[in-house]
Amino acid sequence: MLDLRLTIPVARWSFWPAAEAKTPELPFVEPIVRRRLSALSKMALKVAYDCAAQYDAVRVIFASRHGELRRTASILDALASDQPVSPTAFSLSVLNAMTGIYGIVRGDRSPATAIAAGAETLGYALLEAHAQWHADPATPVLVVYADEPADPRYGHVDHEVGNGALALLLDGDAPGHLECIARGEAESTDDAASIARGFPTQSEAVVHCLEARAPAAWRALGRHWQWHWREGGAI
């Protein structure tokens, strides 16, 4: 496996926790659109707005392991019951639905990318953000990760994700940097593992690192991911 080491500037970040019982309100979205949104899209739009409302244009990377899988399952239920499928439900069932809505709401035609990479989705979304930022640091990059566990009908899912949304804005005036290191288990040492607290999901590890400014780690699929916070400007 290829080792990864990257450091990204974090100008702002926002998190909608799994423990939050209600879905967020979205006053910046028109009611007719807001009513059609899933809980997943609402969480994603909330954290995205928190990070980038003051910017006229941002490149967006939306990441989700399952995406709108629950909406897709309801569409399949309708087909199995010979019921009509709503065109709106169908158009909002794709992985990049959130990026389209976000661009329309903001009137922003900046490039948008959608990523799904299994249990490691957030890590690879940060890698994509790192690549885009270094290719063109003049325009901010917004990473939005949102997920929810798969419907129970799909059975057990290895390394299942939690429920919640996280956004990070990469911009030049960042007060600090998030360092990410990913190694194959064979390259990971006990000393390296001991400095970082382990978490059950990638998103929990990243949120802990951002909140506590403390190292955090996640192990799965033969790879050891670590995150560290670095205070200060350019590194």
How would you characterize this protein structure?
The protein has a domain at 12-174: Peroxisomal Thiolase, Chain A, domain 1. It contains eight helices and ten strands. The protein has helices spanning 31-34, 39-52, 69-80, 87-91, 97-106, 121-135, 190-194, 202-212; strands at residues 4-10, 12-16, 59-63, 112-115, 141-147, 164-170, 176-184, 197-198, 216-220, 223-231. It has a five-stranded mixed sheet, covered by helices on one side. The protein has a five-stranded mixed sheet with strand order 2-6-5-3-4, with helices on both faces. Mean pLDDT is 90; it is low at 190-194. It comes from Trinickia fusca. InterPro entries: Ketoacyl_synth_N (IPR014030).
Can you tag this structure with a few keywords?
single chain, 235 residues, alpha/beta, Peroxisomal Thiolase, Chain A, domain 1, 5-stranded mixed sheet, globular
- So what's the overall shape? globular
CATH superfamily of one domain: Thiolase/Chalcone synthase
Low-confidence stretches: 190-194
| Overall SS class | alpha/beta
Q: Give the number of DSSP strands.
A: 10
List the strand order in the largest sheet: 1-7-10-9-8
Average pLDDT rating: 90
Question: What's the order of the H and E elements?
Answer: EEHHEHHHEHEEEHEHEE
What name does the CATH topology of one domain carry?
A: Peroxisomal Thiolase, Chain A, domain 1
Major β-sheet annotation: 5 strands, mixed
From the N-terminal CA to the C-terminal CA, the straight-line distance is 26 Å
| Fraction of residues in β-strands | 25-35%
Number of helices: 8
For the record, what CATH class of one domain applies?
Alpha Beta
User: Rg to the nearest angstrom?
Assistant: 18 Å
Q: What CATH architecture of one domain would you give? A: 3-Layer(aba) Sandwich
Q: What is the helix fraction of residues, given as a range?
A: 25-40%
InterPro entries: Ketoacyl_synth_N
Organism: Trinickia fusca
Protein name: Beta-ketoacyl synthase-like N-terminal domain-containing protein
Pfam family, one: Ketoacyl-synt_2
